[in-house]
Amino acid sequence: MKYTRKKCLKLWAEIIKERDKVCVVCGSEYHLNSHHLVDRKYWPFGEGLLLCAGCHSFSFLSAHRNGVWFSEWLKENRPKLFLKIKNYSYKKTKPPSYISVYEKLLKEKS
Ligand SMILES: [Zn+2]
Question: pTM for the full model?
């Protein structure tokens, strides 16, 4: 079995969806996307939140179009998560191998 990046990302997104169930910002149940709180280039399987398409990237006030707004939202609504992300040094850390990520994600899911 090949543990590809794509497979891991899919599993990661499923875990976020099962945990949050609705858009954490507006409560919508439709067009949900798992949002990477840290650039997935650096840390593809780190913290995430479930957002609807509007809050993720289409509205003026969305995570991708207005990072300052989203960061303020996070600070106010998820202060612990905000601090955790702010203090991580993802760029300095080498991401783990896909097989270890896959196994960790599977464990989280069960
Ligand atoms: Zn939303």
Answer: 0.84
